[in-house]
Amino acid sequence: MPLTKLDPNSALILIDLQKGIVGMPTVHPAAEIASRAAQLARAFRERHLTVVLVHVTGRPPGRTDAGIPNLARPADWAEFVPELDQQPTDFVVAKKCLGAFTGTPLEGYLREHNVTQVVIAGIATSVGVESTARSAYDLGYNVTLVVDAMTDRDLDAHRLSIEKTFPRLAETGTTADMLKLLAERKPEKSVAS
Questions:
Q1: How close are the terminal C-alpha atoms of the chain, in Å?
Q2: What is the full DSSP assignment across the chain?
Q3: pLDDT tens readout for residues 113-146
Q4: Which end of the chain is more exposed for a tag (fewer CB within 10 A), N or C?
């Protein structure tokens, strides 16, 4: 379903755009994904809308290491890529699960700020992005996925998410579509006039 509108209280959620993940091989150039995500973050901040930066900082307890090599990670592995230009107003979520909601304060923060719509992008399409989108849908948010601001390590998994799963959960569109919706928003009135 194409993008139709942006709720007054929308939040941008950027998934795992951190040095250790952006540095991995992906289907689409990760630098382009980070650049589009940065454009979205700037536009949301300019309109005083919530920006959530999510990074993975470990694994959940239990048997969660299947198929994942236990490699030493560099000290800056979990740091956000500089293109995102992290701001003090951004809400940072450190996650240990696939999605951004499980085991984090994200839902409480969004509810406290009366957010009704989440706009999601990042890496990997079929893992962190899809897990977060599924949870957001189940929690009753209006979900929007910016499909040209996400990528995956596996082309088939990326396509399956975008073509089959996402249309059941969300509206989908491009960075240009979302920037156009943001540009149509009336500027907020200044309280100091």
A1: 41
A2: -B-----SSEEEEEE--BHHHHTS--SS-HHHHHHHHHHHHHHHHHTT-EEEEEEE-S--SSS--TT-------TTTTSBPGGG---TTSEEEEESSSSSSTTSSHHHHHHHTT--EEEEEEE-IIIIIHHHHHHHHHTT-EEEEEEEEEE-S-HHHHHHIIIIIHHHH-EEE-HHHHHHHHHTSPPPPPS--
A3: 999 999 999 999 999 999 999 999 999 999 999 9
A4: C
Question: Omega into 37 within 30° of 0, i.e. cis?
Answer: no
Q: Which amino acid does the sequence have at 94?
A: A
Given a contact cutoff of 8 angstroms between Cβ atoms, the answer to whether 102 and 132 are in contact is no
Q: Which of 86, 160, 176 is nearest to 125 (CA)?
A: 160
Burial of 154 (0-12, 13-18, 19+ CB in 10 A): middle
Q: Of 125, 149, 120, whose CA–CA distance to 39 is shortest?
A: 149
Using the structure block, give the residue that is written with the tokens 């700020």: 113
